[in-house]
C-alpha cells in the first residue's frame, strides 16, 4: 500500500468520523458541509491524481489537528471523536508529504 492509498483511506476515515460526530445534530447540514465535504472532495481529487489535492489535504490537516486538540482539551464528552480526528490528521499530514520527503532525501547517484 503506497502513501496515496493511505492518504485516501485517512481522508475517508476522517469524513466518517465527522459524519458520526455531527450527523446526529438537529441541523447537521452546515456541519457536514463544513467538516465532511472537504475530506471527501480531497479523497476524490487524490484518486483522480490531481496534484494539488495532496497539498491541500496536508494544509487542511493542520487545521483539523488544531481543531481536534482544542475540542479534546475543552469538551470531555467529545474527546474520543477529537482524538480520532487528531490521529487521522497526523496520518494525512505524513502520507501527503511522504512522496516529497522521499524525493528530497533520496540518495543522489554519484558522478
What can you see in these coordinates?
By secondary structure, this protein is an all-alpha fold. It has one domain (3-105). Helices cover 81% and strands 0% of the residues. Helix 1 (3-22) runs antiparallel to helix 2 (29-47) and helix 1 (3-22) runs antiparallel to helix 4 (79-105). The chain is elongated and about 65 Å long. It starts with a helix and ends in a 6-residue tail after the last helix.
Topology record:
Elements: H1 3-22, H2 29-47, H3 51-74, H4 79-105
Helix pairs in contact: 1-2, 1-4, 2-3, 3-4
Helix/strand class: mainly alpha
Number of beta strands: 0
Number of helices: 4
pLDDT averaged residue by residue: 92
Work out the radius of gyration.
16 Å
List keywords for this structure.
111 residues, mainly alpha, 4 helices
In short:
The protein has helices spanning 3-22, 29-47, 51-74, 79-105.
Amino acid at each position: 500500500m503506497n502513501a496515496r492509498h493511505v492518504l485516501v483511506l485517512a481522508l475517508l476515515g476522517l469524513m466518517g468520523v465527522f459524519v458520526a460526530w455531527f450527523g446526529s445534530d438537529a441541523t447537521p447540514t452546515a456541519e457536514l458541509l463544513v467538516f465532511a465535504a472537504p475530506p471527501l472532495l480531497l479523497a476524490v481529487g487524490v484518486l483522480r491524481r490531481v496534484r494539488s489535492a495532496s497539498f491541500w489535504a496536508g494544509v487542511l490537516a493542520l487545521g483539523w489537528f488544531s481543531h481536534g486538540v482544542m475540542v479534546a482539551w475543552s469538551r470531555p464528552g467529545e474527546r474520543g471523536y477529537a482524538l480520532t480526528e487528531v490521529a487521522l490528521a497526523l496520518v494525512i499530514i505524513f502520507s501527503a508529504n511522504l512522496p516529497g520527503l522521499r524525493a528530497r532525501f533520496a540518495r543522489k547517484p554519484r558522478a
